[in-house]
Amino acid sequence: MAAADDTDLTQVSWKDTAFIQQHGLNEHSIMPYFALSQFYDRSSLNEQIAMQARFNQLEAATLDKRQMTGIDYELAFASLAPPSLFIITKSMRRSPTHTDLLGAYYIIEGTIYQAPDCNALVSNRVLNSLHFVQKAFADLQNAARYQPAVGHFWESDEKAFAKATAALVADDNGLDDDDEMTPGDDIVVGVEGLTARSDAGSSVKAERRPLGGRPTRFLGDSADDRRRAGAFAASLDAAIGVTWSVAIEAPDACALQEGDAQSLAPTGDAA
């Protein structure tokens, strides 16, 4: 079946185990093997020469596809060392000296894949990086807390605030530092200060007043707040740097450019 020019086959692969066991894969058998896959275009110059060879081998021997125009497949790279690797380029031949690169295919251990183009590769990397940046901001938002009396703070600081508030309540009620509040006690921190109430009754009481007798403090008022904010900014900058480095990774590791394909001399040319 011919492969349409606008068909995206980058998500599929193909392998014929029976052919590999019978013929093996090398510079001479790789093109006939590739011609069995759905990646191969039956209207190509390679297929025209192969059809001529079936009926008139003498005439086929005189054909030179460099003098023809149309789709041309060439073996650009071959390595038999395990894992075996073959790279086949697909070009539109317009003259003996001019070709336009249309695509590339790589065969690893007998499995054929279509290489993605540069646009698809870069777009995928950028989308992946944006996804992880968005996820990082969502995680940070879930870890943020706010109380009118103290301002914004992180979830990791919540226990420290609860301990400090419990100490204030214990101080207001004449409790020692080692005394614990009974289960069911609830501490409410508001704009005006704090209120301690107990579901059990009147075991803990406190008047509403500014927290700790001091004016309300907001995040950033202390050196410790600024240190935590600086550490968070440094971590976020490092995370964005990692995702950006992944997004701009050189795409030529997975896709052939036209100049690279033309600079590689064909190691074999089979029908």
From TrEMBL:
Species this chain originates from: Geranomyces variabilis
Cellular localization per UniProt: Nucleus
Chief localisation class: nucleus
Main function: Component of the Mediator complex, a coactivator involved in the regulated transcription of nearly all RNA polymerase II-dependent genes. Mediator functions as a bridge to convey information from gene-specific regulatory proteins to the basal RNA polymerase II transcription machinery. Mediator is recruited to promoters by direct interactions with regulatory proteins and serves as a scaffold for the assembly of a functional preinitiation complex with RNA polymerase II and the general transcription factors.
Pfam families: Med6
UniProt family annotation: Belongs to the Mediator complex subunit 6 family.
Name of protein: Mediator of RNA polymerase II transcription subunit 6
InterPro entries linked: Mediator_Med6 (IPR007018), Mediator_Med6_sf (IPR038566)
Superkingdom, natural source: Eukaryota
GO cellular component term, pick one: mediator complex
